[in-house]
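Comment thread on ticket #2218

A.B. wrote:
> Attaching the input chain for the structure job we discussed in standup.
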Amino acid sequence: MSGFVKRRNPPAPGSIPDALQPFEAEVRFYREVAPVVGVRTPACFEAEAGPAGTRLVLEDLSTWRQGADPAVAARVLAGLHRRFENDAAGRWPWLRRSGAGGDLVGQLYDRTWPILAARRDVTARARDQGERLVGAVPELARAGSAAGPLTLVHGDASVRNMRTASDGTLALLDWEDVSLAPGLTDLAWLLVSSVPPPRWPDVFAAYGDCAGLDLVLPTAVSQAFLSLADTPEGSADAKGWIARIEAAGARLT
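C.D. wrote:
> Ran it. Output below, let me know if you need it in another format.
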């Protein structure tokens, strides 16, 4: 059977993937959750996990347009979150909990921050935001659990993990970070990873109730800084990350 084959080797012992087991979580997602999730995902033809790693054979959506309109994405995410509010934990008790791995991510952030702080393209406002996160990431991740009812979240809801069909249907890909968390964690990452700040009001309107967003934005900002670290200094990608970090910081001050 033809399709897109996704293989993952076992994670290195002691690594963040070793602690969070995202590859096995994605296999379980396609086996147990995808058939009832209520949003478009790639069809799954095979889903295997074992000592040698994981293997998925998925529908190839490479002919679909990469990305999505942010407001459409926000509406799809809102529907997903409402559908499983206060229900996902009972259905799938294996789901990663909100804040899991926060200590390891915090250690990575603290190690990375001096490199980021030395970059010439990091603005004063962004640098101030980044300094506030040093030593605080684990506690902020735990605090984000209070942002709203726990539900099924994608966990990496950036537009790079979305595809749009010619009829406008939006598909969500890459479910390695599927979790049990407040839905606003997906919204925060959509904004900080993908949405130009002038379009944030459109996304808020499309999603609906955003009360509690400020509780999860700091964690999204820490992830944004780690993503910034992988971009060339002064590049268009870097400028985009910095602009979105600044927009998040403006909400938090």
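A.B. wrote:
> Thanks. Noting for the ticket: The chain has a mean pLDDT of 96.
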